[in-house]
Amino acid sequence: MTNPGTPWATENPRLLYRAFGVLCLALLFLLSAEGNVTAQGGLSSSQDRKIRDRYEQILERNPFQDQAFDRVFRSYSENEGLAAWEARLRSAEKEKRAETSVVLGRLLARLFRPEEAVEAVERGLEGGLEMESATRALLGRLCHRAGQEDKAAAHLEAAIPGLVDPDRRAEACRLLGGIHLRRGTREDAVAAWERLIESNPGDLFALLELAAIYEDNRLWDRAIDAHERIVALAEADPYRQCLSLRGVGAAQLRLRRHEKAIAAFERAMELAAPGNWLREDLKRRLIAAHRDRGDLEGLLKQTDARLAQSGEEAGWLKLRAETLVALGRDREAEETFLKVLVCPVIQIVTYRGCDGRG
User: Fold this and answer.
1) Which of 330, 256, 320 is nearest to 287 (CA)?
2) Are 117 and 109 within 8 A, CB to CB?
3) Is residue 260 within 8 Å of residue 252, measured between CB atoms?
4) Domains and CATH numbers, the chain
5) Residue 169 CB: number of other CB atoms within 10 A?
6) What is the pLDDT of residues 240-295, one digit of tens each?
């Protein structure tokens, strides 16, 4: 027990030493943290400052460099704050650097201030920025966000001819077409979207983007045309042909053209390998199209004729079995599924089919 007349430090020297050690470690930590903070107030080391400075220099040369912009944005948001970057850009903008105005516009857009962003990028455009097409494309997007549709359309129209990057060009064409469609000028919208492929009609990736745009906007005949162009161009790529034929069939079904949809699905099935996920998907679509048409018996006759012609091929046997299931003839379906088991492919898939309907 501690003697009331004896100092605590004398009675508990070990505890004193431990407390002193903890205090020293805490002081060292605080001092090291303070020493690592730069005079600008935020970055943890001079190396981080140098890295950020390099990215800022990249943005001074090319304000559209996305990786550099994201790195600088993250650095300021985690350290001094984005208000500090905005203040720095506004100060640098006084030197009449057009690139700085564009970077400021991008920052303001990220901060959900589209009207101010438009004004900043317009100052950059007036300053004689070399990358005029990219700047106008950015202005088109910002004006669209700010609700300035007329200005957005004008900037996008001017930007598209000079956009070399496929992704930026596709984005601009998609946005311009959407503006025209909202105005009720469908032909202008189609003309804008078709500009995706005006320089290279054989660009498969541009055609895929075009088909997706038409599908998103429920322009089914246009989507069918785009997919058929892809099928014609992708002779050496059966998988791509298969996907586009599936797209043709899906669009034809939207238009209630069952015969054409079924024909497209059947063409696609001829290209799909047995057991492939795409073939399985096409079979489901084919059965659904016949069911919607009220002609499942016709599909059954068709599969029987095909099996009589080519022998008991597993893919067609499975289609027959699934058609019988759709017709409610489960016993015949089970017998057909069992026939598939002696075929050399997709046996596991067939077991699952039997298991679900036994």
Assistant:
1) 320
2) yes
3) yes
4) 48-130 (1.25.40)
5) 22
6) 999 999 999 999 999 999 999 999 998 998 888 777 888 889 988 988 888 888 88
The Cα–Cα gap between 230 and 242 comes to 10
- Give the integer Cα–Cα distance in Å for 1 and 305: 103
Q: Rounded distance, CA 141 to CA 69, Å?
A: 17
Distance, CA of 154 to CA of 136 (rounded, Å): 9
Provide the Cα torsion 222, 228, 230, 236; round to 10°: 180
- What pTM was computed for the model? 0.66
* Torsion of the alpha carbons at 198, 201, 205 and 206, rounded to the nearest 10: 20
**Cα(302)–Cα(315) distance, integer angstroms:** 14
Question: Whole-angstrom distance between the N-terminal and C-terminal Cα of the chain?
Answer: 83
**Per-residue pLDDT tens for 115-129?**
999 999 999 888 777
Residues 321, 15: Cα–Cα separation, whole Å: 82
Rounded (10°) CA dihedral 312, 299, 221, 197: -10
